[in-house]
């Protein structure tokens, strides 16, 4: 049999695998030996589902079927006698002509699923959760009949330590950089306990019981035996402590990961920037697994805000959209909506905005359509929580987050209203794309009314920016960067307001600093949009470079340069609680790709895009940005720019230059003071531009 | 230690045990060896919950705790190191003063639960499903620390067969009446298979593979060994078929049941009626288990209509309210509401009406309050499905049932609107009792408007009753009993209309007959309300007596006297599919208790009640009707009536008599033509009335 011939695939109720898997991984978090289930509802798959397919065969055929769960078959509404426990293969003879097969499956332990093979395989199968409608059955990469949807299919690689040395009463093992997986102790002889204290820093590993995670291996072997730790951990360092009399021959690490290609790239004449990009890619890769997690050491949870940023970074390096989709499905869970995403009001809005980014980058309207009903119910939940003024305040037990920096989060916080407004605009956009005219009208109107109110209440002409909040009818006139960042990013400000925000807020040193790399991304992104690319590059060098100077091999959950080095790993009032490999720390990839290589989609799925490379004082830059159809490759130095277009869409190359001749061959068009544009109409071609002459060669 | 001292009890999130258990039992149904999961969503317990309690001890105390699931403890917000797998007993020292203990529990296999003992035991514990609110933790009879909520705690009794005889190629075992449980084959010797074919009738058992259920025991024993069947079955007969060479010493049956006392009773001078009452009580008992099931042989499912009638019958014999509550919780499941109860529109309404009956009989407002949020969401679901006229039609894939008799169920069926109207009135009542004024107004207004519309559209003055339906703007003027029955029962008709319905519909032989004992109850109940008690008694004798004449030891799912005896066990187009022990078959208990003994609550929990015994031509009647506080005992013959009042409330004894002196001692008050009333003001007393003299003695 041709090994390329597709045999079949496992099918299930849409979203059930993601939701089931999310619950399983959400309870893996441990803290010093104890479990930490998340403080939100964990949904599961539907236990009781029914699959159906109508066959219309010209000649009789044979369907083989495997089922995960108890099941019963009905053929043209009559039961087919079959054993109801899972069998490797059940065979059903399908006569010619039109016939319907139904498979009722019950499973309260794993995802109810079927594997049909033959007679069209997975095509045409529908499934119901008994809610009165049938939907297309879902599948993913579970193509082996004996590997039904369950444990996530990771890849593994055995890794040797960089160094192993005795230190104090134990042994310190260093794997050279942040990693994740199991630990193998080779050739163990003796009886007793081996203790492994994990550390993202050597300080944490050496702190023993104060480390966030540790394991104990109870060993008892007279001949050399290998022992493997029972669960996966994140670490760079391990402190080993062995009971007297125990010996071992070596230590290895089984690295567990999602195989992904770095389709994006960035190199420049500044090695520090290059290193920042590399560590960012590693940081993100560590956190992209079943879902996009916040950080691997501590939470291993899926958070709406982290996902909003992380999935955008992903678009500039791996462009791995299955993780994004799983993440957005997992965050939302099932109906009814009882709380905000992760209980955090702004994370609900980040969830909506993630879909906007997803759609812009991929053009995948099918996923938007599938998710739209759940967007609607979540938006209704939000609208039901507006106060009399039409704005959203945190309800008791709601978490209003924004950033870890101190601020008064009571009442009507302007940033939250700006988020709500953008979420409404996003719903308006999707309603339009999906032909839901009534909701397009409704959400559009609500967004416009809210925007008017935001400006009326919170725009402070005197201070030149948005003020923070209103609480109990009293305005809190504090100027913080957050509302100004997002109003800038969402295009809510006119030229004059943009300039005012830039001078009076964004570049104003007296305004309170942002505390997380998460919110720092949005700040720097806004600054780029305000024309401060070189300034942003300096910030990347000093802020992310500052972590490297402190020994980072991945980027952190929080970084405040003024904190003394010995306290840099502390957070939440505890030693070593800080995550040193946090997805949102990878933001430089996004900033460098979007504003230095300068690549950005303008229409869904890169149907239109802009390439606006900017040396920002560097000698040269080069890199790649992934798109749904190949990569856009960019090179620039002081003399020339080259762009290789991706396989689809129409781009525009924009060059800022004071010395460029005025588009003498008619290809470059001057669109403003020292600003030139060239249309990149040919997919998959290399455009080479000599800046001095403004000549363009297309290969 | 004093064995009466309460040690503690298992606690969980309210309704989680019922919902978890319901899913488990719903998939036990089998048909000829294959599973039959129900065609509706099966919910489960919340996997991830958190318990809390605030202690305020005068002196330090010790709390012992067992947990079903993984768990972590926090004391005054700090984690207490404890192993997170379930331990028999974890001990927590609680200091004096105010302190909070939190227990986070995760369990995706069983109901997350805790067993606190000491420091106030289960009192004061709250729990959250992470929906933003805390509620009082629920408990039931799981009081042993090593018996957490799981398998339902049944009772068992070993039963000998009535007869065992060779018949054809096998052996026919008769247990004398319908029963349920396991079968034990004693002293088996030999190797091979023993086949057990179960039958509610001997015909079914003898039909072998055509029986609804059968089991195979694979045996292999050289010495006498007992074998037990793997699952519970319902049967009266078993046909045994043994492979050659297999012998056995005897057969027994392990009867599995919920222990309940027959608090109600009925005896009369008519032995046929007495037998009907007995078989009714047995029929109901067989179906009252974890929940109130429809029938034990086939479905073993919980149905809203069956529950509405079955729980009312229960009120006149067992008064076992835990089963009723579990049943109503299981039927509703969790939010969101996506379909009608059991997918049947009228069963949604039966669910509302069950609460009304429950409240009237028990006065238990606490259960109403706990269930009220789910009543609201279900009612919103209904209101969201009204058409432009404000009426409910079956949506595609909705099941509109009413009765198994043939009728056109398309469009606006008048019976369904009458059900909706009564459901709205029920919500109005509960909203009033719970102080939800806005909803009281709203539901009341909707009910009044709908009632007006029902009369305007469907009341046919010419035919003297309600017509059937409207479909595509065309009225279907067929007269069926259903709308007229329920309008009568709900008190929607004036005297003239009642008389018209009685003559033109209810006693009109040309009107199509009702097909199920289910709907026959409502018919006969309405006839009693229309003054036709003696006629109803005749109907009970002939209809239910007719099943006894055919050999019934329990009452059936459906009975049509005109069907030939050899086809009486067929249903749904198949041999022996009919359930011969169906809860709704037990309705005579309710009719005899309510209209012959004549006992009925008038105010919630029997705060007020009526006793209106009626000989209906019998020489004497006697019996008991259970109430929340003892039984009301009634005796009547042609000369005297005696009533022993229950322990609570005020009754009224109503006597119809043509010969009674006009209340000469001032105790009986004449309230109409030949109708006298005596107030029974003393709880727990015996009132003896000599009818000829109208004297009353109170003991």
Name a few traits of the molecule.
6-stranded antiparallel beta sheet; Jelly Rolls; homodimer; 4 domains; alpha+beta; Bac_rhamnosid_C (chains A, B); Alpha-rhamnosidase (chains A, B); 699 residues; 14 helices
Task: Explain what the structure shows.
- The structure is a homodimer of 699-residue chains.
- Chain A is an alpha+beta fold and 699 residues long.
- The first copy, chain A, has four domains: 11-136, Jelly Rolls (Sandwich); 155-257, Jelly Rolls (Sandwich), CATH 2.60.120.260; 265-592, Glycosyltransferase (Alpha/alpha barrel); 605-698, Sandwich (Maltose phosphorylase, domain 3), CATH 2.60.420.10.
- Chain A contains 14 helices and 33 strands.
- A six-stranded antiparallel sheet of chain A has the order 7-6-9-4-11-12, with no helix packed on it. In chain A, strands 13, 14, 15, 16, 17 and 18 form a six-stranded antiparallel sheet that branches.
- In chain A, a hairpin with a 2-residue loop joins strand 30 and strand 31 (675-680).
- Chain A is globular.
- The interface between A and B is large, with 44 and 44 residues.
